[in-house]
């Protein structure tokens, strides 16, 4: 089963996305900022990180850099509610090392399809 680390400062988004991902068979850990994400990544193995860009206390850009430095092969999907996947912050996230990007709001199907493209399956 694929293990996902979901990093978003919005509690409602963390809850909704973890419920959706869980219903598709993914094991989900959550963090509300990049600092918590780093602590989880130091203690646990995950397959992919779903990461919001704009967060207090270590934003997504800084978190991408930290992940690439310490876990260079970990898949990262950047998320932002500010524009489409070609919008400047998401494009910049890709230059820092994010493997792909999702513009909020996105559908559950879009999120799961992207995970499947990365070889991350849910239900066995």
From TrEMBL:
Domain Response regulatory positions: 3-119
Pfam families on file: Response_reg (PF00072)
UniProt xrefs under SUPFAM superfamilies: CheY-like
Question: What are the protein's UniProt keywords?
Answer: Phosphoprotein
Q: Which GO terms describe its biological process?
A: phosphorelay signal transduction system
State the organism named in the record.
Terasakiella brassicae
Q: Which SMART domains match?
A: REC (SM00448)
The name on file for this protein is Response regulator
> What positions are modified (4-aspartylphosphate)?
52
Source domain of life: Bacteria
